[in-house]
Write a structure and sequence with these properties.
Length: about 325
């Protein structure tokens, strides 16, 4: 592998942005080209007339250094005056807060959509405000919001299930209506084809990485690329680090373990995705079982405590691709 590898990252929001910060750091030290980050857009939604792209914005704000690191979402130092007014009107969702600065992003995006720009062009415009050090691409320009089928027969938008119900309504499955007709956003397939390494961030395998892989053409591009495909486990010691990925995994019949998620992604030589899979030191005992799947298990510290820790993870993932 080249010492300045061309890297593509597939990512969701919070886990995706922490990992992307590390990838940016690791590549900057190699003086390599900027990574391309393909972002999940299954979390997107319309609310009070504006289009939200939560995972895109999480990565955008984190890379720009303007994210609220304590709360874990939105802009640092944001206020909620407009949100209070929307609540008075009974507009939007009472359980979904929109910060004032964040609303500025949503208004800008929605205005550009009305002007006829594509989501890809809009992400490029949003990215132009700050020196992000990566190229961000939405997974697709088509609206394919994730829906959740829950026990009892109801179907909820992903955000309602996740934010309002905190994933407490037992999910039966996840759908992305219209995704069969969606295309990868311009540049996604090309970036994967030209990459030396594709990294699957330690994002939610079901509702962050899952929608990206469900866009027709992306899985095929991953199968065809000469790049090494390396994934990073979001599961450490049989538990999610944060969030509710365990509930999502259970719904699709996958155990909450680093080995089960590896098997879910599958081995590339056998029609799956992965050449190598990074697991935490706490899961070192699973390495033999993962190797037996035909991919390479690599044990590394996987706690993204700070940028240095995430960068060390990115280094380990790049090293895993070098062999
Ligand atoms: P979301 O879109 O904001 O839900 O974020 P992602 O899907 O990108 O990431 C959520 C996943 O990140 C969860 O399943 C967590 O288990 C995982 N995660 C969060 N922090 C860490 C960490 O420090 N290390 C690892 N390995 N995984 C993490
Ligand atoms: Ca998300």
């Amino acid at each position: 592998m080249a010492s300045s590898p061309r890297v593509v990252v597939l990512a969701g929001g919070v886990g995706g942005s922490k990992f992307t910060l590390g990838v940016r750091d690791a590549l900057a030290r190699r003086n390599g080209p900027e990574a391309t980050v393909v972002v999940n857009t299954g979390d997107d939604l319309w609310l009070s007339g504006v289009r939200l792209q939560p995972d895109v914005d999480s990565i955008l704000y984190a890379l720009a250094g303007v994210n609220d690191t304590e709360r874990g979402w939105g802009r640092d130092g944001d206020t909620e005056r407009v949100n209070a007014e929307l609540q008075q009107w009974g507009a939007g969702w009472p359980w979904f807060t929109l910060g004032d600065l964040d609303l500025g992003t949503h208004l800008a995006r929605t205005g550009w959509l009305r002007d006829g720009l594509t989501p890809t062009q809009i992400v490029e415009r949003l990215s132009g405000r700050w020196p992000l050090g990566v190229r961000m691409l939405p997974m697709t320009d088509t609206e394919v919001d994730t829906h959740v089928r829950v026990v009892g027969g109801d179907v909820l938008h992903f955000q309602e299930w996740w934010t309002r119900h905190r994933a407490q309504l037992t999910p039966l499955g996840f759908d992305h209506p219209g995704i069969e007709a969606a295309l990868p956003a311009p540049g996604v397939v090309e970036a994967i084809a030209d990459a030396d390494v594709v990294l699957l961030a330690p994002s939610n395998p079901v509702v962050s990485i899952g929608p990206i892989l469900a866009v027709p053409g992306i899985r095929e591009a991953l199968a065809l690329t000469s790049a090494h495909v390396v994934g990073v486990s979001p599961i450490i010691g049989g538990a999610v680090v944060r969030g509710m990925a365990d509930v999502c995994l259970t719904a699709i019949g996958v155990e909450t373990s680093a080995a089960a998620v590896a098997a879910h992604y599958g081995t590339r030589s056998e029609g799956g995705l992965l050449d190598a899979w990074l697991i935490a030191e706490e899961d070192a005992h699973l390495a033999a079982a993962i190797d037996a799947l035909g991919m390479r298990a690599v044990v590394a510290p996987l706690w993204m405590r700070d940028v240095a820790a995430s960068a060390a993870m990115a280094d380990a993932a790049l090293a895993a691709a070098a062999v």
